[in-house]
């Protein structure tokens, strides 16, 4: 498995398996188990996904040595704050049946994420987390966090796909030594991604699926990807992207698809901040 090296020297697989929108416990456990048997070693979940326990059972069921795995989970907004983050971390660790996390992320840039970051810095220094990072942080908020704290986030997980390529943000993250990770690499099928003429043409040329082309495009940009599927054949297909390479012309063609706009939500919208602040989940 190809890896990237985080700013603290930790190696992270460049392709992982995500479990967003897989709340059914049995389905989630079986999908994660199938992914692990396929060869995935990075598993990405979150407290807010309500499936950490299922992920933990799949990990245990796989029998794969802990040191071979890279497990990520995330802190939800309602638990932002120093004390609440400590408690939330312990709860996630228990649900996952783990002694430590490889990566712990602040899920949203709202609430008392400064207090949460101080707690995460302490947990990191104690060896309970191998790396700490953030998700959905725009460059201004990320820089503010970097300037006023001791540990630079290792990862920023943000919406990134052919229709929202985040080119300038990618360059900014590289300058700061923060690894870019994509969520929704397929844009959840929005914008007719799987029927897009540019992507289907490139896929036909390489005898690959559109999904494989998109994942390969991200990997060649050195962006970590976490595709999700509950279907065995798709899980295997999304992992099979290392036996071909996109040409410079392929990459240029895909670059023309960028709309420079999110297909989901704007983190500069006050209504989004309000929604996230009031979004409570039964953790």
TrEMBL record:
InterPro entries cross-referenced by the UniProt entry: AKR, Aldo/ket_reductase_CS, NAD(P)_OxRdtase_dom_sf, NADP_OxRdtase_dom
Superkingdom as given in the UniProt entry: Bacteria
Keywords: NADP, Oxidoreductase
CDD domains xref list: AKR_AKR5F1
Domain NADP-dependent oxidoreductase span(s) in chain numbering: 22-257
One family name in Pfam for this protein: Aldo_ket_red
Family: Belongs to the aldo/keto reductase family.
Name of protein: Diketogulonate reductase-like aldo/keto reductase
